[in-house]
Amino acid sequence: MYTLFHILVACHITTGAVGLVSFWAPVVSKKGSAFHVKWGRIFVWSLLVTGALAVCMSTVTLLAPAETHPHIPDLVLVNGVFGWMMLYLGVLTINLAWYGDLAVLNRRRHLANRTPLNLALQVLLLIAATNCAWQGWRTGLWLMVGISTIGFATVATNAWFLAQREPGPTAWLREHIKALIGAGISVYTAFSAFGAVRLAPQLALHPVLWAIPLVTGISLILYFWSTLPRRAALRP
């Protein structure tokens, strides 16, 4: 288990690093350009793989918490943060990356977003967020309860969009922006927080460390949403 876990960690760090870097290329580039599309695809697929590896790492942790994290004596913390919360964050990352990519691929073909996989990902995220909140409440790890609210908000807003019969002309673009920047928030949060466990364990559960990526990401979402009316007016 120890060897398998560290192989997964190495792969997770590699693909996650690609996601961390490639996130900014679509953010700062001209929207719709070939450069934007190319780096957007790299970002999406790196996050899908990173999220899947996080799910595998959390599963191995839950099966063998002491073996995979011998440097942390508190097994309640290991199971909670590195097990259930990492599982939730992995599902959240996959959900946002897939949903955001599908939104831009389908654009105005709204019904094409209601694929069995896309709908199943909403259910899986709801289950993962509920379990993360419950495990946090049960063990007194209140950060887990707080971070689970992002999952509930994601499922609620995704389901609202998917349930609409005829969304507005820029609704798909709003969802694309929300989901992929949200995926960036997820991966930056995970890397800063879980990395802090090794470099500065006393900071790992500090709310400020978790709040910085969230505030930055929400600010970016609101900024790009505010530019949509102007862009729509410039289109022929």
Helix content: over 70%
Name the poorly predicted regions: none
Output mean pLDDT. Answer: 88
Taking the alpha carbons of the first and last residues, their distance comes to: 58 Å
Q: How can the largest sheet be summarized?
A: none
Strand content: under 5%
The total strand number stands at: 0
Contiguous helical run count:
9
Number of domains: 1
Given helix and strand content, the structural type is mainly alpha
| Rg over CA atoms | 18 Å
Encode the helix/strand succession as letters: HHHHHHHHH
Summarize the structure in short.
The protein is mainly alpha-helical. The chain has nine helices and no strands.
What are the key terms here?
single chain; 236 residues; mainly alpha; 9 helices; 83% helix
Structure description:
With 236 residues, the chain is mainly alpha-helical. The chain has one domain (2-234). The chain has 9 helices and no strands. The chain has helices spanning 2-22, 24-28, 34-63, 65-68, 75-106, 116-139, 142-163, 171-199, 207-234. The model has no long low-confidence stretch (mean pLDDT 88).
